[in-house]
Amino acid sequence: MHPIQTSPSAPLTTQDFDYELPPDRIASHPPVQRSASRLLHLAGASLSDHAFTDLPQFIAPGDVMVFNDTRVIKARLYGEKASSGRVEVLIERVVSDHVAWAQVRASHAPRAGTHLLLEGALSATVLSRQDDLFELHFDGDTPLLDLLEQHGRLPLPPYIARPADNSDAARYQTVYAQSPGAVAAPTAGLHFDEAMLQRLRAHGVVLAWLTLHVGAGTFQPVRTNTLAEHRMHAERYRIPGATAAAVNAAHAAGHRVIAVGTTSLRALESAAADDGTVAGSEGETRIFITPGYRFRVVDRLLTNFHLPKSTLLMLVSAFAGMQPIRHAYQHAITTGYRFFSYGDAMLMDHNPDISAGAR
Fold it and tell me: pTM for this structure?
């Protein structure tokens, strides 16, 4: 990452979260086995290298691990405007059986009333536009999620420079995916296979579940100069009452709550009361976690390595400290860790000693 600012009162900028990544560090394919990745542990300023299969030794009996059970939908569609002109549609958020918000790429942005024919089978009409997203209405009686399953294409992240193949249909989903609606996988969960989940249960770890439907905005860099100017994209989440109860019981008994992925963390922190308790709830969150944020629920975070200038890199810097994250990322680059969705994992402890001005 770039050199830090010298004035503790200066606002944080996107350049504070930039770093150079050699292209060969980007994982374009998953490992042969889900749990065959590496694991970097960050505790304060201390780093240690491990295999992902070592994970249970870091989790104590009675601790709660919270997983995101969202399922990636086939959200990418190709087609054309009724008036001619190619279009590419990436569904961002399904809001009803026939309406969705989507990114639309075309030589000329479609206006309200424009008709689209997608994949030679789906008819859609542009209803409105809000910033970079278009509201689309899909015709017919078949629910949109069913249409996408029949005709859509799996949307791999933009930094994977290849089309999705048959293996991605399985490997770009977690083994516990249940609730369809995500445009991107909750990638920290991709490391888990059934054997690892069973090992954790046998070790006395409590496994809990929530849903946050990841939007395509998760891949977008922050384009404003300062963090305060950025407007976060909305994502829908649901926390079952049983998960809230497990989290609250763990803290009451002195155990830790481990979020599996930044999506689980964002959902839990969005639903937290000031005292750190969580209630079963659902809604939309635009929570934007940056250095200086006071974490109320999550004690540890398991995540992958994130894109430069991304909101997720800002989140982990808030959680573990900007300097420790800089050091960890440089170590990961130097020692050959694989980055991004199909890359390696990182387990970090919350660093309570960091402050809003700590750079």
Answer: 0.93
